Amino acid sequence: MHAGVQSFMRCLITAGPTREHLDPVRFLSNGSSGRMGYALAAAAARRGWQVDLVSGPVALPAPESVATHRVISAAEMFRACEPLFARCDLFIAVAAVADYRPKFTAREKLEKSGGDRRLELAPTVDILKTLAARKRPEQTVVGFAAETHDLEAHAQRKLEEKNLDWIVANDVSRPGLGMDAENNRVLLLARNGVQFIFGPAPKADVAEFILDHVIAAPRR
Ligand code: CTP
């Protein structure tokens, strides 16, 4: 299926959490396991596509036949993605990027001070939004939306605000599904209003479903 298109596909995928360090041993992060992004990278590589996977810190091995670039922070993830985005056909942003970082990172381990402590935060770069703003007409950009309520409305807003072709919305309020889970149930929304639902299913099957749709169906 799609043999002619697939052999020329270059795919960029972000995965996992980022860590925003307060000091050398402490950081802000989240519970993303990276499994959904790694499943997508493996599925894309099995199709013969050329895959770059930019991954935050996770416990997973690099998928076979995938160029895996390991990063720590949102800023590093952005720097790694920028040149790869310029030459990809398909960008899928799965990473649970931290939205904020500590305004200051201490060079040495912070000592306890006894009383209350305030933490000043600064926004991180929105990797997906920044790169999707540079999208060329032949490129396809797919985002993810992890939501605990009003799934469709929030996903639809992100689809428009971030200039995406597709968004994969998953409900992370249900235990055992979505973030840090084996299975996922997704709502796939296209810019042109088409919608699909899939799952609950193992993330490998969800990955195949996503790739089939973002490549096959008309977007606009
Ligand atoms: N994303 C990104 N860079 C960020 C934040 C998010 O690339 N700094 C990407 C994620 O990889 C995902 C999409 O944007 O594909 C949506 O992320 P999400 O955290 O759900 O949305 P936000 O825009 O951060 O909005 P909010 O946290 O308010 O829901």
3D architecture notes:
The chain has helices at residues 3-6, 35-46, 74-86, 127-132, 151-161, 203-216, and strands at 10-15, 20-23, 26-28, 50-55, 67-70, 90-93, 100-102, 121-123, 140-147, 166-171, 183-190, 195-202. The chain is α/β, with parallel strands linked by helices. The chain has a single domain, classed as Rossmann fold. An 8-stranded mixed β-sheet has the order 5-4-1-6-9-10-11-12, with helices on both faces. A two-stranded antiparallel sheet has the order 2-3. A two-stranded antiparallel ribbon has the order 7-8. The chain is globular and about 60 Å long. The model has no long low-confidence stretch (mean pLDDT 92). The site of cytidine-5'-triphosphate has 16 residues, from helix 4 and strand 9.
What characteristics describe this protein?
binds cytidine-5'-triphosphate, two-stranded antiparallel ribbon, 8-stranded mixed β-sheet, Rossmann fold, globular, 220 residues, alpha/beta
Which SSEs are present, and which pair or pack?
Elements: H1 3-6, E1 10-15, E2 20-23, E3 26-28, H2 35-46, E4 50-55, E5 67-70, H3 74-86, E6 90-93, E7 100-102, E8 121-123, H4 127-132, E9 140-147, H5 151-161, E10 166-171, E11 183-190, E12 195-202, H6 203-216
Helix pairs in contact: 2-6
Cytidine-5'-triphosphate binds next to helix 4 and strand 9.
According to CATH, what is the topology? Rossmann fold
Number of discrete helical segments: 6
- Rg over C-alpha atoms, rounded to the nearest angstrom: 18 Å
User: Gap between N and C termini, in Å?
Assistant: 22 Å
Number of domains: 1
3D shape:
globular
According to CATH, the homologous superfamily is: CoaB-like
User: What is the typical, i.e. mean, pLDDT?
Assistant: 92
Class derived from helix and strand content: alpha/beta
Major sheet characteristics: 8 strands, mixed
CATH class (first level) name: Alpha Beta
CATH architecture: 3-Layer(aba) Sandwich
Approximate strand percentage: 25-35%
- What portion of residues is helical? 25-40%
